C-alpha cells in the first residue's frame, strides 16, 4: 500500500515466478534477502523506498526506475553487498553502512537516473562506465566512491542542475549536461585521468584538482561547454638530475606574468631579476 511501512528481520521475501511483486511504501529488510527465479520481478513503484540489508534478486529482474523511488543498500555484514542491476537504471540510489567491512559494489549496473548518495562506507565501481543523471554526494566523513581501483569512468549526463559534493578521486569524468549547470560544491575532487566537458556549464568553486603522477598525465579535454572557477593542475616530474624543463600553459591567453608569482624568473622585463644574464 502507498505510504505503508514494513520491516522484516530474518526470513527471505520470495518473488513469485512469472509474476511481479510491487513495493509502493517503505520496505526495510534488516537481515533478509529478496529471492526469486529468472522470471521473477520486483518493482519499486513511484515514491517507494526499499532498504535492502541483504541480497536483492540474485536471480530475477529488479525495476527501480520509477520517478522518485529510492533503493538503499544498507547491509552491515562482512563482504561486499552487490548492487543489483536495475532494468532501466535506478532513479535514486543510496549507499549506507557502518564499517569498511560493509563495502558495496556495482559490478554491471551502469545507470542512475537521478541522485547517487553515499551515506557511509565505500562504493566500489567495477562497471566500465557509470552514468549519473543527478548529483553525487558523499554525506559522511567515512563515505567514499572508489573508481580508481578499476579505472572506471563517470559520466554526468542529466538535464537538470547537477553537483558533486565531497572529496572524490575520479579517473575519467565526463560532463554531458543538457540542463543548467554542473557544480563542485564542497571539498576538493581530483581528476587522475581526463576531464571531458561535452556540454553544460561547469562551476568549480575552486574544488577541482587535475593531478598527474608517475603512472600517467591527467588532462582537461576540449571544452565544448564552459568552465568557470579555479582549476588547480599538478604536473608530475620524475626524480633525476637537476636540469632544464620545458613548460607551457594548458590554456590559451596565458602569459609569463601569470606564472611570475609561482616561480623565480630571471632575465626579462617584469621578472624577479630582470638584469640577470640569462632568461629563466
Task: Describe it.
By secondary structure, the chain is mostly beta strands. The chain has 1 helix and 31 strands. It has one helix at residues 256-259; strands spanning 5-8, 13-14, 20-23, 26-29, 34-35, 41-44, 49-52, 61-64, 70-73, 81-83, 86-90, 92-95, 104-106, 111-112, 116-118, 122-125, 129-132, 136-138, 144-146, 153-156, 162-165, 169-170, 172-176, 182-186, 189-191, 194-199, 201-203, 208-211, 219-223, 226-228, 232-234. An 11-stranded parallel β-sheet has the order 1-4-7-9-12-15-18-21-24-27-30, with no helix packed on it.
Write the layout of secondary structure elements.
Elements lengths: L4 E4 L4 E2 L5 E4 L2 E4 L4 E2 L5 E4 L4 E4 L8 E4 L5 E4 L7 E3 L2 E5 L1 E4 L8 E3 L4 E2 L3 E3 L3 E4 L3 E4 L3 E3 L5 E3 L6 E4 L5 E4 L3 E2 L1 E5 L5 E5 L2 E3 L2 E6 L1 E3 L4 E4 L7 E5 L2 E3 L3 E3 L21 H4 L21
Parallel strand pairs: 1-4, 2-5, 3-6, 4-7, 6-8, 7-9, 8-11, 9-12, 10-13, 12-15, 13-16, 14-17, 15-18, 16-19, 17-20, 18-21, 20-23, 21-24, 22-25, 23-26, 24-27, 25-28, 26-29, 27-30, 28-31
Amino acid at each position: 500500500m502507498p505510504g505503508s511501512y514494513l520491516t522484516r528481520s530474518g526470513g527471505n521475501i520470495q518473488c513469485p515466478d512469472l509474476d511481479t511483486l510491487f513495493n509502493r511504501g517503505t520496505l526495510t529488510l534488516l537481515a533478509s534477502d529478496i529471492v526469486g527465479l529468472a522470471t521473477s520481478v520486483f518493482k519499486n513503484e513511484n515514491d517507494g523506498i526499499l532498504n535492502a540489508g541483504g541480497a536483492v534478486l540474485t536471480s530475477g529482474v529488479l525495476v527501480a526506475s520509477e520517478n522518485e523511488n529510492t533503493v538503499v543498500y544498507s547491509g552491515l555484514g562482512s563482504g561486499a553487498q552487490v548492487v543489483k542491476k536495475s532494468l532501466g537504471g535506478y532513479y535514486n540510489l543510496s549507499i549506507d553502512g557502518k564499517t569498511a567491512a560493509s563495502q558495496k559494489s556495482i559490478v554491471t549496473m551502469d545507470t542512475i537516473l537521478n541522485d547517487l548518495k553515499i551515506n557511509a562506507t565505500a562504493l566500489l565501481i567495477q562497471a566500465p562506465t557509470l552514468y549519473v543523471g543527478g548529483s553525487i554526494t558523499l554525506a559522511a566523513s567515512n563515505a567514499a566512491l572508489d573508481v580508481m581501483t578499476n579505472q572506471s569512468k563517470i559520466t554526468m549526463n542529466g538535464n537538470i542542475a547537477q553537483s558533486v559534493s565531497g572529496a572524490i578521486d575520479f579517473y575519467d569524468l565526463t560532463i554531458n549536461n543538457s540542463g543548467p549547470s554542473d557544480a563542485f560544491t564542497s571539498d576538493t575532487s581530483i581528476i587522475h585521468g581526463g576531464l571531458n566537458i561535452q556540454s553544460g556549464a561547469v562551476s568549480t568553486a575552486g574544488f577541482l584538482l587535475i593531478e598527474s603522477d608517475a603512472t600517467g598525465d591527467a588532462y582537461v579535454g576540449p571544452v565544448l561547454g564552459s568552465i568557470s572557477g579555479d582549476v588547480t593542475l599538478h604536473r608530475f616530474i620524475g626524480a633525476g638530475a637537476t636540469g632544464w624543463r620545458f613548460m607551457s600553459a594548458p590554456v590559451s591567453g596565458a602569459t609569463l606574468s601569470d606564472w611570475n608569482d609561482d616561480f623565480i624568473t630571471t632575465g626579462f622585463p617584469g621578472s624577479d631579476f630582470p638584469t640577470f644574464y640569462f632568461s629563466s
